[in-house]
Amino acid sequence: MYQDLLNGLYNANNLTNQAQQILYLQNLQEDVKSLRRAFTVYPVQFDYTNNKIQASYLLTYFPHYTELLQVALNKTNSTIATENINNLLLFGSGPCPEIIGYLKYLNEHNANNNRTIKASIYDIASTHWQYSRNIVFNNIVPNLKKQSIINQTAKDLRIDNSFTANPIAEKSLVVFQNCLNEITEDKHQVVVDNFSKIYTAIPQGSYIVIIDLSEYDSVINLITRIQTTLSSNDTAQIIRNVSEGGLNRQSSYANPIPFIRENLLTGIPFQVQNGLIPKRHIKFTYIIIKKT
């Protein structure tokens, strides 16, 4: 995946020789450090509009986050894979690591067979994230989609502003991944209310999955409130409860390719913490609720 991301960034920035590519990665080091600092503060905030920050995100966080939805859905074993759900509603998706996780999950269970998957992407900065999504959909998705067709649409939306959720006709997989950590506590009730609207809008047989970093107590409290509210519906089946706790999972992408280690993520584990040490573990929690 790392090489695919690099190839996409090279093409997007017209980097045609190795000297240019080396300089490009080296010039991202300060942006990586800035991004790392942003994730130490709640609520998380960083400059989505900056393509260098997006490139830093793609190379330092994105590969790890492609695994989270796959891990969560495997809580159901192959159940969701065999229920032929092809309508995805992805909130706070950014560069869309969730679509990679979903395709990996389908492939793991031999269920990616000539599907037509519709991915509706909602994000506070979906227009700006188009830069990164183009790289993901052009360089990574083709390696995973097999004979399936992926149709995507993107729309700017703040999940901490009250919105209207129109009825949805087809069974859906609704995913909120790594976006609740950007919500201030004074907006929590608005978010809970929006989840209730979405739950009402989706048909029977749909799923809501919330995945987020477990390092922030405020995030756990918000997920708990959402789960409590949705579970008050007689039709709600809790498949994975927030009370089961968080996971500290070693990433499959803990060892970036040498070109990235030599020119961008040059930090040495267990030595000086300079913000350039490759990420190795992901601390996250998740819930899954089915509307029966």
Task: Provide a descriptive summary of the structure in words.
The chain has about 290 residues and is of the alpha/beta class. It has a single domain (about 1-290), classed as Vaccinia Virus protein VP39 (Rossmann fold), CATH 3.40.50. The chain contains 12 helices and 8 strands. Helix 8 (about 95-110) links the parallel strand 1 and strand 2 (about 115-125). The protein is globular. The two termini are about 35 Å apart. The mean pLDDT is about 95.
CATH class: Alpha Beta
Largest sheet: 8 strands, mixed
What is Rg?
Answer: 19 Å
The CATH topology comes to Rossmann fold
> In percent terms, what proportion of residues is strand?
15-25%
Mean pLDDT figure: 96
Helical coverage, percent range: 25-40%
Measured distance between first and last alpha carbons: 37 Å
Query: CATH H level: which superfamily?
Result: Vaccinia Virus protein VP39
Shape: globular
- Given the helix and strand composition, which structural class is it? alpha/beta
* Unreliable sequence segments: none
Number of helices: 12
Q: Helices and strands, in N-to-C order? A: HHHHHHHEHEHEEHEHEEHE
CATH architectural arrangement: 3-Layer(aba) Sandwich
Number of strands: 8
In short:
The chain has twelve helices and eight strands. With 292 residues, the protein is an alpha/beta fold. It has a single domain (2-291), classed as Rossmann fold (3-Layer(aba) Sandwich), CATH 3.40.50.
